[in-house]
Specification:
413 residues, alpha/beta, seven-stranded mixed sheet, two-stranded antiparallel ribbon, 18 helices, 13 strands
Length: 413
């Protein structure tokens, strides 16, 4: 989600890594192919991989087809994307919301221990902004000792590691997002991997084979949208293309990542659960070839910001990033967020995100919760959501100076 204090700014996303001199490889490089399952098996030691048009449908697919659950409840952080709760609720599960800790903005093990273990059978842990969840190891041990399924939400942490091990390989299940603002992108796409061989994998493969692809005409429009986006979003003439993009979205020629129906906690059963097509998989394959380049770019941008911030500001705003190798969005805690954004946005050349809100207080989801035991206790989620902004760290080298106005404001704050 992009901040409501939006000005006409350059929008950076992961298509920045697909420059004109690389795009041809989609069609002519034999290393670029649609068989990317092997990459996930090798990287995550997974037993099964399923590719969809969104991460939310990946989660929906797993919950719909996980048969060994009588409780039908999931522990999930209240500081998360609303599409996560949409998937949980529409799959027939009830979310039980848990507060975050302030350091890494992830689920707090101490809050988990306060909840009756009989109430739920699944824990969904989020690596917010790509930062490894602070209590990941403890929560994994808790799940192993109490016969709980651990799902890792790696929507923003495709390349992130903890102890030199990829996030997504710790849980029984992991889901990834390939939406525009993520580490690599198909504009709209997601993946589910199964790391626990004792889950009903054969049944899931059978159910997956029943799922359809997008209708050909929609698939064609989507592919055109991707190709145009690679050039329009990165164009030097973006301020002109901005209006064209706006028209294309308003005329529904371009498809938004979140349909209006999902804003009301409903889904369209005809197009919510669809397979990723071959072109999308090849697009992922192309970007994976440049994994080291993407990671190094993130490191260089983070280092650039870190060096220019005066020390006391660094300690206040960036000390929670020291334990990760890669992060796609840089979170910043701003006391007076509204005033800060009004001053910042007219002088920068990228859009600022304000993910996430405290869903424990969101009326759309409260009505689906029978167990509101923790909603009033999600104090950190509320506090952080009121003060946090995030910025993209995937700016190309030639545009790194775009961070300078932000840095000056932070140093003066």
């Amino acid at each position: 989600m992009i901040t409501k204090y939006k000005f006409k700014n350059f929008y950076y996303n992961s298509f920045n890594h697909i420059s004109k001199n690389k795009f041809y490889k989609l069609f002519f490089d034999k290393k670029v192919n649609s068989n990317i399952n092997n990459y996930f098996k090798k990287t995550y030691n997974s037993y099964a991989e399923f590719f969809f048009l969104s991460a939310r449908s990946s989660l929906f697919f797993f919950l719909k087809n996980y048969k060994n659950d009588k409780s039908k409840r999931v522990l999930v952080t209240s500081f998360t994307c609303d599409s996560v709760l949409v998937s949980i609720i529409n799959s027939g599960y009830e979310p039980i919301l848990v507060d975050i800790e302030k350091e890494n903005f992830s689920m707090d093990i101490n809050d988990i221990l306060k909840i009756d273990k009989k109430l739920y059978s699944i824990i969904l842990i989020q690596h917010t902004f790509g930062i490894p969840a602070k209590y990941l190891i403890e929560i994994k041990k808790f799940c192993n000792n109490n016969n709980k399924i651990l799902i890792e939400d790696c929507a923003l942490s495709f390349f992130s590691k903890l102890n030199n091990q990829r996030l997504g390989s710790y849980g029984d299940v992991a889901m990834f997002s390939f939406e525009l603002s993520k580490s690599i992108t198909t504009q709209k796409g997601g993946c589910l991997i199964i790391n626990n061989k004792h889950l009903n994998i054969d049944t899931m493969y059978s159910k997956y084979n029943e799922i359809k692809y997008q209708p050909k005409i929609k698939e064609f429009r989507k592919n055109i949208q991707i190709i145009l986006s690679i050039y329009l979003y990165n164009s030097k003439f973006y301020n002109i293309w901005y209006y064209l993009l706006k028209i294309l979205y308003n005329l529904f020629i371009f498809e938004k990542s979140t349909p209006k129906i999902e804003k009301n906690c409903s889904i369209n059963n005809d197009n919510f659960l669809l397979k990723m097509n071959i072109f999308h998989k090849k697009l992922l394959s192309l970007q994976i070839l440049y994994e080291k380049e993407i990671i190094n770019e993130i490191h260089d941008n983070y280092t650039y910001i870190k060096k220019k911030l005066i020390s006391n500001k660094l300690n206040l705003k960036l000390n929670y990033l020291n334990n990760t190798n890669y992060i796609i969005r840089l979170p910043l805690i701003i006391d007076d967020k509204k005033t800060f954004l009004k001053k910042l946005l007219p002088i920068i050349n990228f859009e600022v995100g304000y993910w996430f809100t405290n869903l424990a207080l969101d009326e759309r989801f409260i009505k689906f919760q029978k167990n509101k035991i923790n909603n009033k206790n999600c104090i950190n989620s509320q506090l952080i959501s009121e003060k946090i902004i995030n910025i993209p760290l995937n700016l190309s080298k030639q545009y790194r100076y775009y961070y300078d106005p932000l840095i000056r404001m932070l140093n003066d704050d």
